[in-house]
Amino acid sequence: MNLRNPPKIKILEALGAIADGRVKLINEEECEVISSEGDRKYKVILKGSEVYSDDNGTKFRNYVGYPIISCLMIKGLLSFNEKYSNALKGIPWHKLNEEYKKYEKVEEIVFKISSERGISRAELESFIKTIISQIANLHLKKIDI
Questions:
Q1: Using only C-alpha atoms, what is the Rg of the chain?
Q2: Contact by Cβ (8 Å): 49, 142
Q3: Which pLDDT tens digits describe the chain residue by residue (145 residues)?
Q4: DSSP conformation class of 7
Q5: At what angle do helices 103-116 and 121-138 cross, to 10 degrees?
Q6: What does the H/E/C string look like for 78-119?
Q7: For residues 127 and 29, is the Cβ–Cβ distance under 8 A?
């Protein structure tokens, strides 16, 4: 099954996960991503255009979840910007998503935080657009393991 492009916020969340040191390459095809609260570990498998992750977005909603995005960035298969990543460090993603229940509201908060840290919304929006395009070009397919 082809995976859909992710919600924009998932790219920001992937950048934050990298800055927080929550993304670990296990081997050439496997990655581990720790949730923002540290209570879950997501297993990510990357085999060319075939991917697996046990995060909810990938597993149940059939879009490319942030664990896959962060692993693709770490492996150099998607663009990465350390400055943007550092501006998203330490954001309590799960807490915000639970509290506000809408990605758009959480996005506003995250853009405000990044702006206070010196990265404009326009810069991040442009980067998000680039990543969405790169993801689309990868034609990722969900596999079961």
A1: 14
A2: no
A3: 899 999 999 999 999 999 999 999 999 999 999 999 999 999 999 999 999 999 999 999 999 999 999 999 999 999 999 999 999 999 999 999 999 999 999 999 999 999 999 999 999 999 999 999 999 999 999 998 8
A4: P
A5: 130
A6: CCCCHHHHHHCCCCCHHHHHHHHCCHHHHHHHHHHHHHHCCC
A7: no
Q: Is 82 exposed, middle or buried (0-12, 13-18, 19+ CB in 10 A)?
A: exposed
pTM value?
0.96
- Give residue 5's Cα distance to chain centre: 11
Q: Are the CB atoms for 16 and 89 separated by under 8 Å?
A: yes
Q: In whole angstroms, what is the distance from residue 102 CA to residue 93 CA?
A: 12
Residues in a beta bridge with 41: 34
